[in-house]
Amino acid sequence: MSALEAFCNILVGYLVAVAANLVVLPLFGYAVSLLDGFAIGLIFTLISLVRSYLLRRLFNSLPS
Q1: Domain tally for the chain?
Q2: Is 13 exposed, middle or buried (0-12, 13-18, 19+ CB in 10 A)?
Q3: Crossing angle, helix 34-61 and helix 2-27, to 10 degrees?
């Protein structure tokens, strides 16, 4: 169930990022196609995954 939860978290986060890209970036003057929104969302999702992994490793290495 933890793996399913993690997958759902990533999927929902990615879809929210894509929607945010399509809404927010044009407000700042950037023309964003649907494909651009998906690509930008993927990049930020990968960054988020790496960040989460590194923080988890850091906290697991700290003494309890």
Answers
A1: 1
A2: middle
A3: 130
Q: Rounded to an integer, what distance in angstroms lies between the CA atom of residue 4 and that of residue 58?
A: 23
Would you say how long the chain is, in residues?
64
The reported pLDDT for the residue numbered 29 is 97
Residue 43 has pLDDT above 90, yes or no: yes
Q: What is the span of the domain harbouring residue 29?
A: 2-61
Mapped to the 3 state alphabet, what secondary structure does the chain carry?
CHHHHHHHHHHHHHHHHHHHHHHHHHHCCCCCCHHHHHHHHHHHHHHHHHHHHHHHHHHHHCCC
pTM of the model: 0.80
Report how far Cα 17 is from the mean position of its chain's Cα atoms: 6
